[in-house]
Design a protein that fits this description.
375 residues, alpha+beta, eight-stranded mixed beta sheet, four-stranded antiparallel beta sheet, 12 strands, 41% helix, globular
Length: 375
């Protein structure tokens, strides 16, 4: 932390009072099921966002990022969201506002420095990591604490309300509840959080295409709206209230495009339960097949994949050391996750990447612990 502390001193002319860290996450399976009331499996990873913070005079908010984000200096909070290069600060400022919404202690003003080794645009949820690390740091400054479920709820509220992304609880819940050697299972109707052991002889690999659709935020919101429309027509509160058989009996009530979106969600919710059962009985082959089936559903039904992501899955699927592969995160670009056996290494990953044509970034991940104060 010494270099990070020195940077903080340089920017703010005082020493940091607290450090907090939160991991990014891999969406293991459960694509867009969270805001539809379904179940998801995520993994907290050993790539993180770390923040250093100290109190500032009341009403003063000074934010910096070592990753090149525009410096933000505010003497009064704007009524709306920041735009342009300063838009990244909506996440920590949204957390500060959310602490007030939740009637939790918060500093009257703060200095905040952010650093991250999470790759941008890889679908590893740097936004949730930033939210949770900021929340823990600001609470520590104000003498408050939160349980992991409260921390996840706070982060989601900030992103929904102050950033304007209608995300579910997957990202924040996984980052809050992460544990080395375990996946995080979330029943989003509660939400209820449990941990599922991941066999030690498996590995997670990310192939980051670095592509991001220019309209990704609008496309995400469109899928959200399509799902809510389907649920209303089918007479349920959320699509996860339906079994695949129940959905199939009513699918003709829906416009064909809306029906495809709903079919993906209902069947993906079922796939999460099947994956948990497969892992519990040690059937890694079955778990892997479910991961790949999830991708094909995203590709053909939810249509949030891209040709580059599909190409990677096509290359990974037949490899004897690959158990399964799928897009991870919201889609419309980003990355593919592969679950592999021990005998899949860097050389194999690079061979796949070379065949993909776009030379994706390769990241070998470990499943890690969740958000915490670190100093």
């Amino acid at each position: 932390m010494n270099t990070f502390s020195e940077q903080f001193r340089k920017h703010f002319n005082q020493a940091p009072a607290v450090f907090a860290r939160a991991p990014g996450r891999v969406e293991f399976i459960g694509n867009h099921t969270d805001y539809n009331g379904g179940a998801v499996l995520g993994a907290a990873i050993n790539r993180t966002v770390t923040v250093a913070a100290a109190a500032a005079p009341a009403g003063q908010f000074h934010l910096r990022s070592t990753g090149g984000g525009a410096p933000v200096e505010l003497a009064i909070l704007p009524g709306g969201r920041l735009t342009g290069e300063a838009a990244w600060a909506n996440y920590p400022l949204g957390i500060w506002r959310s602490l007030g919404d939740f009637k939790l202690p918060r500093p009257a003003g703060f200095d905040l420095l952010v650093e991250s080794d999470l790759p941008a645009g890889a679908g590893l949820s740097s936004s949730a990591a930033l939210e949770l690390a900021t929340a823990l740091a600001l609470l520590k400054l104000a003498g408050g604490t939160l349980t992991p479920d409260q921390l996840a709820a706070l982060g989601r509220h900030a992103e929904n309300t102050y950033v304007g992304v209608p995300c579910g609880i997957l990202d924040q819940g996984t980052s809050a509840f992460g544990a080395a050697g375990h996946l995080v299972h979330i029943d989003c109707r509660g939400p209820v959080f449990t941990r599922v052991p991941l066999p030690a002889n498996t590995h997670l690999w990310i192939f980051n295409t670095k592509e991001k659709h220019a309209l990704v935020d609008g496309l995400y919101a469109t899928r959200h709206r399509e799902c809510m429309t389907a649920a209303k027509i089918l007479g349920v509160k959320l699509l996860a209230d339906l079994t695949p058989a129940q959905f199939a009996a009513q699918a003709t009530k829906l416009d064909p495009v809306i029906a495809k979106r709903a079919k993906h969600i209902v069947e993906e919710h079922a796939r999460v339960a099947e994956t948990v059962a497969a892992l519990a009985r040690g059937d890694l082959a079955a778990a892997g097949r479910l991961l790949t089936a999830s991708h094909r559903s995203s590709q053909h039904l939810f249509e949030n994949s891209t040709p580059a992501l599909d190409r990677l899955v096509d290359l990974l699927e037949p490899h004897p050391a690959v158990l399964g592969a799928r897009l991870t995160g919201g889609g419309f670009g980003g990355a593919v996750m592969a679950l592999t056996r021990d005998n899949f290494g860097q050389a194999e990953a690079e061979k796949i990447a070379a065949q993909a044509g776009s030379r994706p970034e390769i990241i070998h991940l470990q499943v890690a612990d969740g958000a915490r104060v670190v100093g």
